[in-house]
Amino acid sequence: MILYILLKPVLFILLHTPRCVLMAIAKLLGLCLWHLSSDRRHVAIVNATILGAKDAKKTAKKSFIYTFMAYIDIFYAKRINKKIIDKYVEIEGLEIYEALKKEHKEMAFISGHFGAWSLMATLAYQTAGIKLITIGRSTKNFAIDKILDELRTFEGIKYVTHRGAMEKLPKYIKQGYMPGVYIDHTALGKDCINVNFCGYKVPVIAGIPALCIRKNYPAIFFFTLYDGKKFKVIVKNPVFPDKKLKPKERIIKFIEDINKVYEEVYRQYPEQWYLIHRRFKRVELEDGTLSGYLYDK
To answer: Count of alpha carbons within 13 Å of 40, Cβ hemisphere only?
Structure first.
């Protein structure tokens, strides 16, 4: 509680800092980490190479800046309003979502750690009227978790941590909220399933995909791209559970279809994906064990 009280004045200042200043801070922090952390630099270059970036090193360096822009933009998210939407936000493919919701009352919202990902929830609500229950990881620190809860809860948006989230979802879904997740990050063995992503079998958190399989929910995709001083929301075609497959085959196919959408977007804009994280530190080998050999120097 003491840490929370101490952080509140800092939070107040950041929430009222002009965005141009926030972005300058983000760029400075990104460049500092690029030069100071050879380990993270190596990870980002490997990830950029896996995505097929033409210049992996240049792409990786840009990703450090975009990553910190996304981190810092969490302090800007509360300021998003209709005026900002009209002036700075373009949405591409909204008709895909509009057509889907005519046939499916309930669906899952999938995005990723890409572009302005910390703004994605509020942008989805502001541009498409999507009420979301978003799921994130707990830091296991009371003060940080409480602040994150405050920063990630908006009008039309509720936030829960992943532990126990599946028990809370049915209530929110009945209230008209759509479950929303980013499942493109490193995952632990528990509650995961290993599926193909960029040519490698890696663990993916199976909670929301499993819910989609049980309830026959389609998954709709929204991504937010940094486009100069503006934001571009990109809506991608949905994927559906294949009811002709057996349950285990069905969930593997469903998650792989999700990963194919991730690959399509990330290969097109590799510098805007969260390249500094070890997405491939658990790669399934032929004997079924997991290895992080891709990051060996």
So the answer is: 17
Contact 121, 137 (CB under 8 A): no
Give the residue from 95, 281, 260, 116 showing the smallest Cα distance to 185: 281
CA atoms within 13 A on the CB side of 18: 3
Q: What is the chain's Cα-based Rg?
A: 19
What are the DSSP E strand ranges found in the chain? Answer: 89-92, 108-111, 132-136, 157-161, 178-182, 192-197, 200-205, 219-227, 230-239, 283-284, 290-291
| Three-class DSSP category at 157 | strand
- Cβ contact 112:35 at 8 Å: no
Q: What pLDDT, in 10s, does the model give residues 182-202?
A: 999 988 767 899 999 999 999
Q: Do residues 187 and 206 lie in contact, with contact meaning Cβ atoms separated by under 8 Å?
A: no
Q: Which stretch of DSSP H or E encloses residue 33? A: helix 19-36
- Of the candidates 64, 158, 70, the one whose C-alpha atom is nearest the C-alpha of residue 119 is 70
| CB atoms closer than 10 angstroms to residue 228 | 7
The string of pLDDT tens digits covering residues 33-80 is 999 999 999 999 999 999 999 999 999 999 999 999 999 999 999 999
